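quick one, 222 residues, struct below
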Amino acid sequence: MVALFVILFVVTLLTIDLVIQIRHKKYPLMSPVLKAQGAASDVVRMPKGIFFHPAHTWARMSGGDDVVVGVDDFIQKALGTIENVTLPFIGQKVNQGDPVITLSRGGRALSLVAPVSGTVIAINRDVIDNPALIDANPYDEGWLFSVAPDQLAANLSVMSIAESAVTWIRNEAARFREFLHAKAMQPAFAGETMLDGGVAVAGSLEHLDTEALHTFEQEFLR
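---
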């Protein structure tokens, strides 16, 4: 009788192991192709000296009293190649948290907020003509506009920089991975769009339907 129970126990363990192996082959957590690529496109760039707004825009002090503004590398990678950019006009008053930037790709658009309050004094016309500059480097040639700030100390108090920014973006990547798993419906899709550590790969947002994209905008960009 004891021998029979032992045999049944071993058979049960082997069956469970077989099921697990089949599930992993059907729904891989990460595509081997993405592992092999391991390129710079898999890394979210977070340069020092830049203040990051929790809604994925950034601000940097310029040489004078101006503040240069842009979108971070996380949202650039999640959206993929950006095809069109809409910016506020010179002289426009913007407030921190107001949606004043629109990025478009494939007929779909995301609006992003101003990281600081102030008056727009310059816009990057090169990035309007060539949005690929954001893909190349969102913190340098991909900057969007600059403002003369009027509430800078208060604005910076809600932003992160240096080590705190790195911790924040890691948490955002993990939150984004959970979001994709919840919205994508099919495990294989979510696995193909993420790397180890939850870093987004280019263009993962294009797979979401309109409702899910709107939810992303509300949860991550506001």
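Residues 108 and 210 are 8 Å apart (CA to CA).
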